[in-house]
Amino acid sequence: MNKSIKAENTEFIYWDNFDYQINDNILVSNDAKKYVSSEELLKICRPVFTEYYKKGVFMLDYLFWIDFTDITNVDLKVENNTFQDIDFERSVKTYFVNDLTCFSCGKVYKGALSVDPGLIYPNNFGLRDKKLKMINEENKTLQCHNCGNRFTSKVLHIF
Q1: Do 63 and 32 touch, CB atoms closer than 8 A?
Q2: How many angstroms separate the Cα of 107 from the Cα of each of 47, 103, 132, 144, 151?
């Protein structure tokens, strides 16, 4: 299922699968499914497409819930049009980083979900600050599992 929805005053196309195809109208830093299996990705995030400033061009991000939200329950609510903002309150738009490297110890991870410093929620620019505040106040950014040092970006999940 993929469905155009509006949650937290932000419109995007929500997917409950990774069957999308990348084309010239999609802006993406790295396509997560090139590096991580769809089955593994489905356990922790959902792809969302947000219309970019240019009509017909979309940004691919990955919604990641910073707690143990049952994402399949969110999928059902989206499919049945029974979702509410609270279902997305603990989610954050992320991008995929392949070969995440700790600059302190050199450990390389096959991939990670990280928060874009220019995080954009069209039509709700205050939401960016709210999400970043939530991440910071709850100390949700991860450190290197090998040495304990911080990464240079706000990493929320490591594969």
Answers
A1: no
A2: 27, 8, 26, 8, 11
**CA–CA separation, 67 vs 81, rounded Å?**
23
Q: Tokens 């903002």, residue?
A: 85
- pLDDT of 29-81, one tens digit each? 899 999 999 999 999 999 999 988 778 899 999 999 999 899 999 999 999 99
Taking the C-alpha atoms of residue 155 and residue 114, their distance in angstroms, rounded to an integer, is 4
Strand ranges, E, within the chain:
2-7, 10-15, 26-27, 45-51, 58-65, 91-101, 108-115, 154-158
- For residue 55, give every residue at least 6 positions away whose Cβ sits within 8 Å of its Cβ, in sequence order, or none: none
